[in-house]
Amino acid sequence: LSLLLLSLPLDLKPQMLSGTVPCLPAYILYMCIRHADYTNDDLKVHSLLTSTINGIKKVLKKHNDDFEMTSFWLSNTCRLLHCLKQYSGDEGFMTQNTAKQNEHCLKNFDLTEYRQVLSDLSIQIYQQLIKIAEGVLQPMIVSAMLENESIQGLSGVKPTGYRKRSSSMADGDNAYCLEAIIRQMNSFHTVMCDQGLDPEIIMQVFKQLFYMINAVTLNNLLLRKDVCSWSTGMQLRYNISQLEEWLRGRNLHQSGAVQTMEPLIQAAQLLQLKKKTHEDAEAICSLCTSLSTQQIVKILNLYTPLNEFEERVTVAFIRMIQAQLQERNDPQQLLLDSKHMFPVLFPFNPSSLTMDSIHIPACLNLEFLNEV
After folding, report:
1. Which residue pairs, CB below 8 angstroms and at least 24 apart, start in 13-22?
2. Phi, psi at 147, each rounded to 5°
3. Rounded distance between C-alpha atoms, residue 334 and residue 7, angstroms
4. Which uninterrupted H or E stretch holds 295?
């Protein structure tokens, strides 16, 4: 048992399993649990599950900034949880099983209690995964979304040479472009797909990351006069459209990620709308439903004309907006909570694989395991 757990959770490198069945460690662990169940060895079942859970916790603590390792064990923990449900003998989880799969169900033990522990562990691993991904993306966001001029010739009020400075990440001035964010999200997406993480969980990861991009960008917009201009609104709408296109290209458009960016989409439109007449005020109020009154007023106060032909937003116009929005029951805080986490859900996702089709590659050094 100790040899198995040393070889699996503690020593395993995700790259070793490239080209094998995704979530192979979870299937191997389930087969060991099933054998202990078959021999009716109560001590071995509980020892195997407890040691596995502790081993996974230990490896995640050691690699708490490693996206690939964290994604790997999230995939495997979820798959082990699915296996314990799929082969539990509970009819509710067996509806998609083949007759052959039903032969692999547990016979002697009810492991419901361990399913709850694995579910809690999955939530912890998911939260670690999000924290790592956010840590990588956060330094890129302001530069890529608000400062970098990806639409050439839009600069207006920006200093000469800005484009040249921002478009290069090699000069070490922390300037990032949108392509850097998209490259990084491609990398996250590829890792999670290759490791067999459930599509429903991948969607939740990107919904969370898009919420953070929205919150960090909007908060900076609300604090900086130099980016509150018509050209920034144009730039933001272009950047958001590129992110939406990326989601569609990865079949992630149903994830709710775009909806999390609605406040930023509306802020970009607000920067571009006319801001003079009573009709303009009505248009702003009917459009900006995801922004609070405080946020709308703040953007209008910070708004900087692009050139001498454009006028500042008048105090009278801002009062007009406030009068029209006074019925709204808005939250009082100006900034969004960029650390807000949506609750994660792990829907049951049975596997079509049969246990007798699982082969253990020699690279795992598990020769002491015999198929029975």
Report:
1. 14/68, 14/69, 14/72, 14/195, 16/363, 16/364, 17/361, 17/363, 18/194, 20/361, 21/353, 21/358, 22/75, 22/79, 22/194, 22/195, 22/196
2. -105, -35
3. 51
4. helix 293-302
Give the model confidence (pLDDT) of 113-134 as tens digits.
999 999 999 999 999 999 999 9
Q: Specify the DSSP class assigned to residue 307.
A: S
Contact between 218 and 336 (Cβ < 8 Å): yes
Q: Give me the count of residues in the chain.
A: 372
User: What whole-number distance in Å separates Cα of residue 224 and Cα of residue 302?
Assistant: 7
Dist. CA 144–CA 74, nearest whole Å:
30
Query: For residue 124, what are the contacts with CB-CB under 8 A and spacing of at least 6?
Result: 60
Are 218 and 211 within 8 A, CB to CB? no
Give the count of beta carbons closer than 10 Å to the beta carbon of residue 308.
6
C-alpha 249/C-alpha 265 separation (Å) is 20
User: Phi, psi at residue 297, to the nearest 5°?
Assistant: -65, -40
CA 13, 18, 23, 27 torsion-angle sign: negative
Residues 10 and 25: their CA atoms lie apart, in Å, by 11
CA gap 84, 351 in Å, rounded? 11
Q: What are phi and psi of 251, to 5 degrees?
A: 55, 40
Contact indicator for 233, 268 with CB cutoff of 8 Å: yes
3-state secondary structure of 221: helix
> Distances from the Cα of 38 to the Cαs of 31, 35, 74, 106, 212, in angstroms?
10, 5, 27, 7, 48
The CA-to-CA distance between both ends of the chain, in Å, stands at 17
**Cα–Cα distance, 200 to 250 (Å, whole number):** 13
pLDDT tens digits along 259-313: 999 999 999 999 999 999 999 999 999 999 999 999 999 999 999 998 877 889 9
Whole-angstrom distance, CA of residue 335 vs CA of residue 223: 9
Reported pTM:
0.91
Is the separation of the CB atoms in 94 and 86 below 8 Å? yes
For 355, the token pair is 């246990």
Two tokens at 248? 């569609």
Is residue 234 within 8 A of residue 154, CB to CB? The reply is yes
A 10 A CB-CB count for 103 gives 12
Q: 141 near 181, Cβ under 8 Å?
A: yes
